[in-house]
Amino acid sequence: MKSNIHPDYHFVKVVMTDGTEYTTRTTWGKEGDTLQLDIDPKVHPAWTGGSQQLLDRGGRVSKFQKKFAGFLKA
Hints:
- The chain has 74 residues and is an alpha+beta fold.
- The protein is built from two helices and three strands, in the order βββαα.
- The protein has helices at residues 45-48, 60-67; strands at 10-15, 21-26, 34-36.
- A three-stranded mixed sheet has the order 2-1-3, with no helix packed on it.
- The longest helix is centred in the C-terminal third of the chain and has 8 residues, at 60-67.
- It is elongated.
- Keywords: Ribonucleoprotein, Ribosomal protein, RNA-binding, rRNA-binding.
């Protein structure tokens, strides 16, 4: 195996948007750095489901719903 090809893993502190903290190993930054998150899984709609509704642009959503309306009915 080649020597000195692996990244340097070290511990950093991660601070979530709500202020909670945890420590993890990463190649980001230097040992002991703090990573302040702007978006995290607790608040981002991609993970929480969000309340955003689908916009029907040009009738695409309604066309899709009409086409597959009876697809999963038993």
